[in-house]
Write a sequence for this structure.
């Protein structure tokens, strides 16, 4: 697959805006573990090889286990591997990533709302939106894993 345009080089101001959101997310209540689970799961759904490669490496550096990474695309099937908070985040990540399949259900939203205060929930939602935007950039431009 041939690499296409490099948005960071061609439109550095646009790319810098994306990085600005990442910088904001770095200052939020979202744990590194939760951020990487969001990024990996959304990237799996979107089929973004570049982002899957990057974020699985980042997750491992932050102490994530191989088992949890390997089982992430089947998280609903395993009960004792992911916490209640992680399960709520993963459900929200899936429904927001697959937004055209009916949006975010009340059940998923309410489960997350019961576990996180409004600010934390908003931050989680922004993190999900952001990785979906990065996935679209990487896929559309054929970015390749290192």
């Amino acid at each position: 697959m041939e690499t296409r345009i490099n948005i960071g080089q061609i439109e550095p101001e646009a790319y810098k805006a994306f990085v600005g959101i990442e910088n904001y997310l770095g200052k939020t209540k979202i744990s590194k573990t939760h951020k990487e689970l969001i990024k990996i799961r959304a990237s799996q759904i979107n089929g973004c090889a570049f982002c899957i490669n990057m974020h699985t490496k980042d997750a491992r550096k932050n102490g994530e286990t191989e088992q949890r990474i390997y089982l992430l695309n089947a998280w609903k099937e395993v009960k004792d591997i992911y916490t209640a908070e992680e399960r709520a985040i993963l459900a929200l990540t899936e429904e927001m990533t697959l937004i055209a399949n009916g949006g975010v259900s009340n059940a998923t939203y309410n489960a997350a709302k019961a576990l996180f205060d409004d600010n934390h929930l908003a931050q989680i939602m922004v993190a999900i939106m952001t990785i979906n935007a990065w996935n679209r950039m990487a896929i559309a431009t054929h970015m390749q894993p290192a």
